[in-house]
Amino acid sequence: MENYTFPDGFLWGGAIAANQAEGAYQTDNKGLTIVDLLPTGDSRRAIMKGDVPSLQPLAGEFYPAHEAIDFYHNYKEDIALFAEMGFKALRVSIAWARIFPTGEDATPNEAGLAFYDSLFDELRKHDIEPVVTLAHFDVPVHLIDTYGSWRSRKLVSLFERYAKTVFERYQDKVTYWMTFNEINMLLHLPFLGAGLVFAEGDNQKQIQYQAAHHQLVASALAVKACHEIIPDAQIGCMLAAGMFYPYSCNPEDVKLAMDKDRESFFFIDVQARGEYPGYANRFFNENNIHIAMEPGDLEILKNHTVDYIGFSYYSSRTISSDKEVMKKATSGNVFGSAVNPYVSKSEWGWTIDPVGFRITANQLYDRYQKPLFVVENGLGAIDQVTEAGTIEDDYRIAYLRRHIAEMAEAIEDGVPIIGYTSWGPIDIVSASSGEMKKRYGYIYVDRDNEGNGTGKRIKKKSFDWYKRVISSNGQQLD
């Protein structure tokens, strides 16, 4: 294609998360949450996987999310910059512990509710549609300490109560909702994804899939509540997407790639199709995993499927059955990947594969036949401020241009896509590394990995480029 066509009303914008942007981690009665226990440094990845030394912040550690970019106090100025770019939508998350600081408080925290009232009002003032995630790597620490987080059935009812509270409060302000961010991350970074902490001797797979069942039931109950409280709303799920390529045409490689894709599709199969797939049941049987269910769970899953599939796409992955090949796998991405000689890599080792974006979108629509919403896509890179005070991020423009072009190709293929909210339209704390130098934004934030800096916002070259993309509805990508 040369002339790219996007639907009228396509939701161009950006995406951030409370835990990576807001800061103000104890302001207005907010409780501790997962990210408040994630320091920078060598221990971060182990903690995200469930080896958690403390359920309180430790002296001597730097926790970047405690202050982040202080979006909590700067959201009006930041939203004005998004509006200047012409945003039609901004994806945000609600911090569960701002609404229920412990997760099981007798009444919701009015100061937290009022903050999101003001945030959504500010977006509406600029004709920006809020796209709201209920749980973006977010569980109140009290629930982790008291119940073991999502390994406990108790969290299903507590999450349902939280969801109903915000649906009722914001029913006139929010149309687009999502339940769990990158729900499949539970299998890869279980503390980050679901607040799971493991002790020596734990059957981790059993715990993870039991927690997954609880999240899936909670997601379905949130869908049910959303449809009842806000009949005109759309509520979706959210997948960390990016297909696995077989390293070769060896059938063992092809089968392994299918199996790795299914690890992630499992969650969306349940949320979009309403039932546990046969391959998952076989996996449970062969791995001695026993999912405890309550009467009615399967009916809840079946009757309350999502309206659309939200997904992030940053890179494709490649898998081989040859252990020698996998010894050279990149560890840049959480999922890991054999080296693919046909694609380039980012500074953090993530493959850059725009065509894979189109393939993934087609794969998801072929599988689910539901509208898609691209809610994360972007390039994390080191940006340099010139002596003139500018940031010439042509590499980011090149990445986004190629991915948006392939998204247009997917739409031409017949894939219905609601919108595109690129990740980190303003620099925020990296979820994977805790770094600020891994920047995604069109807007630079003067803050470094140690928390130093003025917090000043500076428009990058990509700011004006994305403004032209939006104003032309994707016609102008140069």
UniProtKB/TrEMBL annotation:
Gene Ontology CC terms: cytosol
Q: Which Pfam families match?
A: Glyco_hydro_1
- Record's keyword terms, sorted: Glycosidase, Hydrolase
* Record-linked InterPro entries: GH, GH_1_N_CS, Glyco_hydro_1, Glyco_hydro_1_AS
Q: What is its EC number?
A: 3.2.1.86
Q: Which GO terms describe its biological process?
A: carbohydrate catabolic process
Please name the GO terms that the record assigns under molecular function.
Answer: 6-phospho-beta-glucosidase activity
Catalytic positions are E376 (nucleophile)
Q: Which family does the entry's similarity section mention?
A: Belongs to the glycosyl hydrolase 1 family.
Question: Which protein are we looking at?
Answer: 6-phospho-beta-glucosidase
**What is the organism field in this record?**
Virgibacillus salarius
User: Taxonomically, what lineage is the organism?
Assistant: Bacteria, Bacillati, Bacillota, Bacilli, Bacillales
